[in-house]
Design brief:
single chain; 194 residues; alpha+beta; Jelly Rolls; 2 domains; 8 helices; Cyclic nucleotide-binding protein
Length: 194
């Protein structure tokens, strides 16, 4: 698992091999069982952030009518950034739960600050990765808003095909903004076109 971290450090930093090794040994890697909640909607803010090495984490909200609405799925080599910790009066607006047994790098604000002061290149790497992530998220959100449910499903098939088999269909339908029945109809139409 640590090889993935070394890949990012090599790609985004000028850290020596020795520094990279020190960092990977200092970083906390945790395993979570399927069904584990990282945070629940309504919980106090957390200072933790995560980087998925293996597995799948679902982000969802329960709306006012009691319906679960899936906002995202995080899989391998994706960061789960939580910025709400800076306002301690806020509670979490969503839940994060592991859909599979999951292995993640776990960071917290204090430890990150200590690591950044010791390894300035690490902060540069984190900033670059965050910029890439935010840019991709903005593009995905803009495309999502302007597309039809069928176009959203086609996008999932081309960009994240593993989700089709890794997540329950009712959660995938929620993520796409459709009912499970509508998702079934979309799949049927697409199979006819093949």
């Amino acid at each position: 698992m640590r090889e993935k971290l070394l890949k990012y450090m090599t790609e985004f930093t000028k850290l020596t091999e020795e520094e990279q090794q020190e960092i990977t040994e200092a970083i906390l890697i945790e395993e979570y069982k399927k069904g584990t909640y990282l945070i629940r909607q309504g919980d106090a803010p957390t200072t933790k952030c995560y980087f998925v090495l293996q597995g799948c984490v679902r982000q969802y909200t329960i709306n006012e009518s009691g319906k679960e609405v899936t906002a995202n799925f995080y899989t391998e080599e994706q960061a789960i950034l939580i910025f709400a910790f800076q306002d301690s009066s806020q509670t979490s607006k969503y839940s994060l739960t592991c859909l599979e047994d999951t292995v993640m790098v776990v960071g917290d604000f204090e430890t990150e600050q200590e690591m950044y002061s010791q390894y300035s290149e690490l902060e540069i790497m984190t900033r670059k990765m965050t910029e890439i992530y935010l840019g991709e998220t903005q593009n995905e959100f803009a495309a999502f808003i302007s597309s039809t449910p069928e176009e959203r499903y086609k996008s999932i098939i081309s960009k994240r095909p593993d989700l089709i088999t890794r997540v329950p269909q009712h959660q995938l339908a929620s993520y796409l903004g459709v009912t499970p029945e509508s998702l079934s109809r979309i799949k049927k139409r697409m199979n006819k076109d093949i």
